[in-house]
Specification:
- The complex is a heterodimer.
- Chain A has 16 helices and six strands.
- In chain A, strand 3 and strand 4 form a beta hairpin.
- In chain A, helix 3 crosses helix 5, helix 7 runs parallel beside helix 11 and helix 11 runs parallel beside helix 15.
- Chain B folds into two domains: 216 residues, Rossmann fold, CATH 3.40.50.300; 61 residues, Alpha-Beta Plaits (2-Layer Sandwich).
- In chain B, strands 5-6-7-3-8-9 form a six-stranded mixed beta sheet, sandwiched between helices. Chain B has a four-stranded antiparallel beta sheet with strand order 11-12-10-13, with helices on one face.
- Chain B is globular and about 70 Å long.
- The relative contact order of chain B is 0.14.
- Classes of the chains: A alpha/beta, B alpha/beta.
- Chains A and B meet through helix 1 and helix 8 of A and helix 2 of B.
Chain lengths: 437, 299
């Protein structure tokens, strides 16, 4: 046991002290800070910055539009009136010029007012691309309101009739749940009420966070573990190491050291994120968007941690096995490809599953150990799963970790003494027999 | 009781036999030489002794007992190819290896400083291995093998890549360790090193033991066939003498091969008749010659 700790400590300290690890960590911490603050920074800069829209004076629509925008609290548009140029052609030319020389950001031109009484069509001239829909959609809403107002005025409706017309439709979304776990409100009934929209949103964020974090951690630490083992092999430190400590302890010490490193790094990132979220400029963002992280049951957080850890172990062990097959760093990329693809598959099945968490495919996938961490957590978070299913999947996952741990240690033990070209599976099996492993 | 004993140990990889029925015994305070060309089975034998791989047949005994995990801390191994972390400080990795073998950090640190001092390189303590020259890396590798004060030391090509000064330094250290009662299994291509250090040797050739025993007895059993002759003036007619098979004229002397001792005396008489003899020596065969003879025969 002592040598296990020694290996773990050595792995951890060597990475924590390495320049590349420190710089990557600082870089990520900065990125996280930037990401968390981005919405408020963007809104800070865009605040008070108005989009000037030109329009020709002398009709009810332009004045209505102006009145509507002035009445809005946080209108991003302001209408600048210009005298009518007489003919549509002159109007068009004037508008184009105004946009081109930057006098206004855009120009709203009426194209036809052929039938009196009918609401005219418009063209919006601006330098914006087709993807910049912000201004035009705001204009559309504004015009829609102006049209409604004009029509209401024309029809001479009473106040009550107007109120009736404007009254919004009520549609409340309620999830019906046959399972018992993961529900915030009820645990007993057969058709219990599921999650409220706010709970679902928080669960959704957690599910997404798990998938992204796990994927990132695996591609980082999996690669690091594999390349470290290959480096030990190519520098022949391995021969000295296995004469000092048993391969199983050696490998698990390394995996745990990496794991500790990953947890330390993740904890740091979470602290950075939380510190940034608690800045005054970010605090009201959550309350505004109805995000209450206390609204979901604590069990979801526990599952989050549990599945993250188990997923991390399973994959890092697999990466370690691949690292011990090859003897040169150049060959490593090819060898770990299958594992990388597997983690990618888990990620994409998860993305697909967010939209259809109750499908049979997702249900089956949640019991396949390589996918369990992402998919089972997704099912728990988005839908609610009977408790026995959760524990069954965890049992399968743990069994898989033990099995692959044992297998990886064997591959490690054999692969370490096989140099030269990358061995095939048959050669590894033969070597295992030859070495009596 | 012998510290290390191999009995009819055989190892096969598939159809290929890597080591075929090797037997040897190493006592306490003895350096045992394992000789052989490339691919003769030296490293496989050493790996079996280390417990890295298990023999298919035969058995290996350590102090009369079979291999066990407890032995890990008592074995020291210097691999033929350097096995160190290139990017990690000397002190960090040596202390790590020592700790893995159950030595406390403080003890190991003291030992490491002592060894660096002994090898006249105390400034390497905080250096990365990749910053050191090949020969100096070999010194660090040697320290890695002995840092935990093992009873049994396995040195695979310990002196490769070293300059003559450092070879002497390491040779003296190996002898010192032997005198402290360590049991050392030593392999080398360099016959002169083996001749200097080992009491008993075993020559392997293509997985088989071709010659084994005490170095002195082996040498004595080979006829003394080589004669060195240094004279003031050139001698003619040496080649025509009975029993002389080869005459080689070097810069300063003649080197001759004879079939029996009488022929050697004949050479001396002939030389003395023609010129003043500065040097006349009947040379014992070197291990190198014996090796080439033994291994060369099989070719």
């Amino acid at each position: 046991m002592r040598s296990f700790w020694t290996v773990m400590k050595f792995t951890f300290l060597n990475h924590v002290r390495s320049k590349s690890f420190i710089s990557v960590t600082i870089l990520f911490a900065l990125l996280i800070s930037a990401g968390v603050n981005a919405p408020s920074v963007i809104s800070y800069f865009s605040e008070g910055k108005l989009t000037k829209v030109g329009a020709f004076a002398g009709n009810a629509i332009t004045s209505g539009l102006k009145a509507y925008l002035n009445g809005q609290d946080k209108a991003k548009l302001v209408v600048t009136e210009y005298p009518d140029q007489g003919s549509p052609a002159a109007d068009e030319e004037f508008a184009r010029k105004a946009v081109a020389n930057g006098e206004v950001n855009g120009f709203l031109v009426m194209t036809s007012s052929a039938t009196p009484g009918a609401f005219p069509a418009f063209r919006y001239l601006s330098k914006g691309t087709i993807t910049q829909t912000g201004t035009s959609s705001q204009l559309e809403t504004a015009l829609q309101t102006v049209k409604l107002n004009l029509t209401v005025k024309e029809l001479k409706l009473t106040k009550e009739q107007v109120a009736q017309l404007y009254a919004p439709v009520a549609l409340e979304r309620i999830q019906i749940n046959s399972g018992s776990v993961g529900s915030g409100t009820d645990t007993g009934g057969t058709a219990a009420e599921g999650k409220t929209p706010s709970e679902q949103l928080v669960s959704y964020i957690l599910v997404y966070a798990l998938m992204v974090l796990l994927f990132m951690a695996l591609s980082m630490y999996g690669n690091m573990t594999a390349s470290e083992i290959t480096a030990e092999k190519s520098s022949r430190v391995m021969e000295v190491l296995i004469t000092s400590v048993s391969p199983l302890k050696q490998m698990f010490g390394k995996v745990f050291g990496m794991f500790l490193l990953g947890v330390a790094q993740m904890a740091l990132f979470i602290v950075v994120a939380l510190a940034n979220l608690n800045l005054p400029n970010n605090r009201d963002f959550f309350s505004k968007n109805d995000l209450d992280f206390g609204s979901i049951p604590a069990s979801l957080y526990i599952y989050f941690v549990l599945f993250y850890l188990l997923g991390f172990f399973l994959y890092v062990i697999l990466y370690a096995a691949m690292g011990s097959i090859v003897s040169r760093t150049e060959e490593l990329g090819q060898a770990i490809m299958p594992i990388t693809l597997l983690s990618l598959a888990a990620f994409y099945i998860g993305i697909y599953g967010i939209n259809a968490p109750s499908g049979t495919f997702i249900r089956v996938a949640s019991f396949i150990p390589f996918f369990t961490p992402n998919i089972m957590f997704l099912r728990i978070g988005m839908f609610g799963v009977p408790e026995w299913e959760i524990w069954l999947s965890i049992a399968i996952l743990v069994a898989a970790i033990l099995f692959f741990g044992w297998l990886s240690a064997k591959i490690y033990r054999t692969g370490v003494l096989m140099y030269g070209k990358r061995p095939s599976i048959k050669e590894i099996r033969k070597a295992m027999k030859a070495y009596k492993l | 009781m012998s510290v290390l004993q191999l009995e009819e140990v055989t190892k096969r990889y598939g159809d290929k036999t890597a080591v075929n029925g090797i037997s040897l015994t190493v006592e306490k305070g003895e350096i045992y030489g394992l000789l052989g060309g490339n691919g003769a089975g030296k490293t496989t034998t050493m790996r079996m002794v280390l417990g890295l791989i298990y023999p298919d047949e035969g058995r290996i005994r350590y102090h009369g007992k079979p291999y066990s995990k407890e032995l890990l801390g008592k074995l020291g191994y210097l691999p033929e190819e350097r096995g160190l972390y290139p990017k990690i400080k000397v002190s960090d990795q040596i202390l790590y290896l020592a700790e893995l073998r159950g030595v406390s950090r403080a003890t190991a640190d003291k030992a490491l400083k002592g060894w660096l001092e002994k090898f006249e390189v105390p400034e390497y303590y905080g250096k990365k291995v990749e910053e050191l020259s090949k020969g100096n890396q070999q010194k660090i590798q040697f320290i890695a093998a002995v840092i935990h004060d093992p009873d049994i030391l396995i040195l695979d090509e310990a002196f490769s890549g070293l300059d003559p000064v450092n070879v002497e330094l390491l040779k003296a250290t190996v002898i010192e360790l032997r005198d402290k009662g360590k049991t050392i299994l030593f392999s080398s291509h360099r016959m002169d090193h083996v001749e200097e250090l080992c009491r008993n040797i075993c020559i392997l050739h293509r997985s088989n033991t071709v010659l084994k025993g005490s170095l002195r007895e082996i040498k004595a059993s080979y006829p003394k066939e080589r004669v060195l002759l240094e004279t003031a003036a050139p001698i003619s007619g040496l080649g025509e003498l009975p029993g002389v098979t080869l005459v080689k004229q070097e810069e300063t002397h003649y080197e001759l091969r004879v079939t029996d001792p009488a022929a050697a005396q004949q050479i001396l008489h002939t030389a003395m008749a023609e010129a003043a003899v500065n040097r006349f020596q009947i040379v014992e065969p070197t291990l190198n010659e014996i090796f080439i003879k033994k291994v060369g025969d099989g070719e």
